[in-house]
Amino acid sequence: MPRILFAFARDGAVPHVFAAVHPRFRTPYIAIVAHAALACAFALTGTFRALAVLSVLPTLVVYFGCCVATLRLRPRDVQSAGLLFRVPGGPTIPIAGIIFVCWLLSTATLTELLAVAGILILAHSLRALTRRYEDSTVAPNIAV
Predict the structure, then answer these.
(1) Distance between CA 48 and CA 94 in Å, rounded?
(2) Angle at 74 between CA 69 and CA 79, to 5 degrees
(3) Which domain holds residue 94?
């Protein structure tokens, strides 16, 4: 999870400070410390079941998004670098993943789903604030 936070920061979804890499160890140390502090806070205030749910359900939402993205990007032949990797079976694997994630999410209680919705709203709000801050700090490009 700290690496996801690092990737979000690198891509501008959360404040850039979380993308800091330690000069000696080459690890995203700010993201690791922030994740550890948040995990510690949750561990001190919650039960194991609640912590497990708060860990797993948002990860399932990420997996769901990856499966949907695979279905959308595969026909467009989108690739980031190197050789294109294709799993045999076409869209069968991502569709199976979507169905499996939906089934797992259907076993969650309403309270758990509301907690995940709250996390997603918080993440979206943080993204909006980050974007607004970055937009305000970029100097306008004025041609002379």
Answers:
(1) 31
(2) 90
(3) 47-124
Under 8 Å between Cβ of 12 and 129: no
23 and 89 belong to one structural domain = no
- What is the DSSP secondary structure assignment for residue 48, as one 8-state letter? H
Assess whether 104 and 62 both reside in one domain: yes
pLDDT tens, the chain, 144 aa long: 788 888 888 887 778 888 899 999 999 999 999 989 988 887 888 777 777 777 788 889 889 999 999 888 877 777 666 666 677 788 899 999 999 999 999 998 898 889 888 878 887 887 787 777 666 665 455 444
Looking at the structure, tell me whether residues 105 and 95 fall in a common domain: yes
Whose tokens are 């499996």? That residue is 100
Q: At 51, which helix (H) or strand (E)?
A: helix 48-73
* Number of domains composing the chain: 2
- Tokens representing 102 are 């939906």
Q: Could you tell me the two tokens for 29? A: 């140390």
Token pair in block for residue 111: 């309270």
